[in-house]
Write a structure and sequence with these properties.
The protein is mainly alpha-helical. It has 16 helices and two strands. A hairpin with a 2-residue loop joins strand 1 and strand 2. Keywords: Cell membrane, Membrane, Transmembrane, Transmembrane helix, Transport.
């Protein structure tokens, strides 16, 4: 281990933790500030008319674009992890990704119309994916094996994520409602710039281990990888400029791409001669949980699509004579996460071996998510901006409890079930399930009709419950396939 890495790991200058944790906390907080701040106003920017400051895109297409964008972010985490492992190392990938995020928000703030949307969302999606994939990995390098501060360090880091997610929609939403959309996007750019500045000043605190390239490509392979990337980028640009891919079918394209990549990943792992029979069985056990995860996120991620429209057109946002900005609703979930995540974690710790198995947690998460959508049904007759804010807050609380049942354990499960030769690929499959679900959230949202919402909420909520119950019925079979993994 290098001297700089040892110094970083023995550092206690940040509340007993390495000083580098403060830099990572900051850059992740500001990235989440910019990401959720922008996401809180993105849907309404796309479908608001020009006299409202928007682009006037069809509402269904606008929600499809938002879902496709979110799916691309999670797809980009897979790319970001590969770049770190093979080309740049986690720390440099994180740094360049943060720069790309800032450029994307600047493009959204300054470039007009669909040009700003295309350039801005592409940069933010790829940058956020790269940053998201590597920030956690760099936090891990700050602690030596067996360091008892590790879990507490990740908890502090996790708080940064939710703090940014809470503050971002508040400030960008206020800027949008009082001045205009481009100031809201501009605030997201400023937030990311602040995160990048403080991170740059503290890069020396991270140690050399954060910059290691675990499995570097050979020089000849690097040229090939760059060539493939250039060809793919050129193909994507050509498809967009020719009109083959556009707002009306973007969500479909992302769904098809993620499904294809996921199938390839599963086939490559399951047919490999590098895995044992028990490892192959565990990979098979992950398939129904992959499907449940995608179903869960196809509903959960509608906070940025259908819930945004609902907040705009169906929610009574009047607070003592003042209309609350639409995006402020996006700050409710982070508050609930901050409050309830420690409680749920403490419950699992208290229960120990008696806690529900991972498949059962997936069942609980999926069923609760379906029930959350059914909770919209009693408000279907409340009229324009007639639904009470407290009711939506209660529904979002159910969203949060469902998230805490499934989301934190998904990544852990993928590492538990992963064959030794395919650890990274299994983690990638978990992110791909989130990517698929997020893209589907946009695709499903295209069918939402604010004037006839009963069928939408009942059918989608009901399907999620059926998927959860089907998974419940399969638990004995899945547990056998998991070969002792709880």
């Amino acid at each position: 281990m290098s001297t700089s890495t040892e110094a970083a790991q023995h550092d206690t200058r940040f509340f007993g933790h390495p000083r580098g944790l403060a830099n990572l906390f900051g850059v992740e907080m500001w990235e989440r500030f910019s990401y959720y701040g922008m996401l809180g106003i993105l849907a309404i920017y796309l479908y608001y008319k020009a006299d409202q400051g928007g682009l006037g895109i069809d509402q269904g297409d606008a929600l499809g674009v938002v879902g496709a964008y979110g799916g691309t972010v999670y797809l980009a985490t897979v790319i970001g992890a590969w770049v770190a492992d093979r080309l740049l190392g986690s720390e440099r990938t994180l740094f360049y990704s943060a720069i790309l995020v800032m450029i994307g928000h600047i493009a959204l703030a300054l470039l007009p119309g669909l040009t700003g949307i295309g350039v801005g969302l592409a940069c933010v999606a790829i940058g956020s994916g790269g940053l998201k994939a590597n920030a956690t990995a760099v936090v891990g390098t700050l602690y030596a094996e067996g360091d008892e501060r590790r879990d507490a360090g990740f908890t502090i880091f996790y708080m940064g994520i939710n703090l940014g997610g809470f503050i971002g929609p508040l400030l960008t939403g206020l800027a949008q409602s009082e001045v205009g959309f481009h100031l809201g996007f501009g605030l997201a750019a400023i937030g990311m710039a602040l995160g990048l500045i403080q991170y740059t000043l503290g890069r020396k605190n991270l140690g050399e281990k954060a910059s290691e390239i675990p499995n570097p490509l050979q020089p000849s392979q690097r040229f090939m990888a760059i060539g493939v990337a250039v060809v793919i980028l050129a193909a994507v640009v050509a498809l967009i400029l020719s009109g083959v891919v556009g707002p009306s079918n973007l969500a479909d394209v992302v769904v098809y791409v993620v499904v294809a990549i996921s199938v390839v990943y599963f086939v490559v792992i399951l047919t490999s001669k590098k895995i044992t029979a028990d490892e192959r069985s565990r990979v098979f056990s992950f398939i129904p949980m992959y499907i449940a995860s995608a179903a869960f996120f196809s509903l959960y991620q509608q906070q940025s699509t259908v819930v945004s429209v609902y907040s705009d057109q169906r929610l009574d946002r009047n607070l003592f004579g003042w209309d609350m900005p639409v995006s402020w609703v996006n700050s409710i979930n982070p508050v609930f996460i901050i409050i309830f995540a420690p409680i749920v974690a403490a419950i699992w710790t208290k229960l120990g071996p008696k806690q529900p198995s991972t498949p059962m947690k997936f069942v609980l998460g999926t069923v609760l998510m379906g029930l959350a959508f059914l909770l919209f049904l009693p408000m279907t007759g409340t009229g324009v901006n007639g639904s009470p804010l407290i009711a939506l807050a209660g529904i979002l609380l159910v969203f949060t409890i469902a998230e805490l049942m499934l989301s934190p354990v998904g990544l852990s499960l993928s590492t538990k079930l992963a064959p030794k030769a395919f650890r990274t690929q299994m983690v990638a499959l978990n992110f791909l399930s989130v990517s698929l679900g997020t893209a589907l959230s946009g695709k499903l949202a295209e069918s939402y009709d604010v004037h006839d919402e009963g069928p939408y909420f009942s059918i989608i909520g009901g399907v999620a419950i059926v998927i959860g119950l089907a998974l419940l019925a399969l638990i004995p079979f899945i547990r056998r396939l998991m070969k002792g993994v709880h």
